[in-house]
Amino acid sequence: MAAPFDLALEALGWIGTAAFATAGALTAARKRMDPVGFLLVAGVTAFGGGALRDLLLGLPVAWLSRPDLALLAAICALAVFFAAPRVERRVALLLWADAAGMAVFAVLGAEAAARAGAATWVCVLMGVMTASFGGLIRDVICGEIPLILRREIYATAAAAGAGLFLALHAMGADRTIAVGAGGLAAFLIRAAALGGGWSLPAYGGKAASGAADPVPGSTERTEAARRASSAP
């Protein structure tokens, strides 16, 4: 029978996969993709960071031996495909789903690196990578400025959560408590940043430009309005 901590990690893995797959699918909805696009974007968001982490650590890529997680990501993607037209405020949902996935995978990534015997700073780096690189690939595919490259507090929150987990674990805290505290810290920092508009200073005082419009079709409406206002 699996130990309680292993069961907790398994549950967190499911939660993080579902959250990131949903966030990826919501981005696909903003881009008006077909079902294949939803599956692709949801998959790279859910598994991209973890796959890169495993490759760098010389470990088997975890999700390739977990068809249950792949199926979960596919179900989330298709559920969003059919439900997104009836879901309002998709941008807010995307941000909160992404924040939940980031918090979970920041700690799980650091935990995986620690079990592999990596140095502490590598564990933090692997936590940030696991939490953010799937979203980075998603944003590149969808033609947006990656969230991690904007001035929003994102990678910083992931690093804080991974660092807190490692610090508590080094001090002898129960691993379940360390994982929970690290994930909660990452989520609360990201939530505070979203709610309070916190951000890191950007070069020149301006945020990165070029992200896609948050509402599908807004570009077309804006351009149409501009042409109408300039017509004689």
What does this structure look like?
Residues 12-83, 95-169 form the Glycine transporter domain. It is a multi-pass membrane protein. This is TRIC cation channel family protein. This protein has 232 residues and is an all-alpha fold. It has one domain. It is 72% helix and 0% strand. The protein contains eight helices and no strands. The chain has helices at 4-30, 35-57, 67-83, 90-115, 120-141, 155-170, 175-196, 218-230. It is globular, with a radius of gyration of 19 Å. Mean pLDDT is 82; it is low at 210-232.
In short:
It is a multi-pass membrane protein. Belongs to the UPF0126 family. By secondary structure, the protein is mainly alpha-helical.
Mean pLDDT across residues: 82
Could you state the order of secondary-structure elements as H and E? Answer: HHHHHHHH
Percentage of β-strand residues: under 5%
Major sheet summary line? none
Q: Number of DSSP helices?
A: 8
The count of β-strands is 0
Spans of at least 5 consecutive residues with low confidence? 210-232
Shape assignment: globular
Pfam families: Gly_transporter
Subcellular location: Cell membrane
Keywords: Cell membrane, Membrane, Transmembrane, Transmembrane helix
Family: Belongs to the UPF0126 family.
Keywords:
single chain, 232 residues, mainly alpha, 8 helices
How is the secondary structure organized here?
Layout lengths: L3 H27 L4 H23 L9 H17 L6 H26 L4 H22 L13 H16 L4 H22 L21 H13 L2
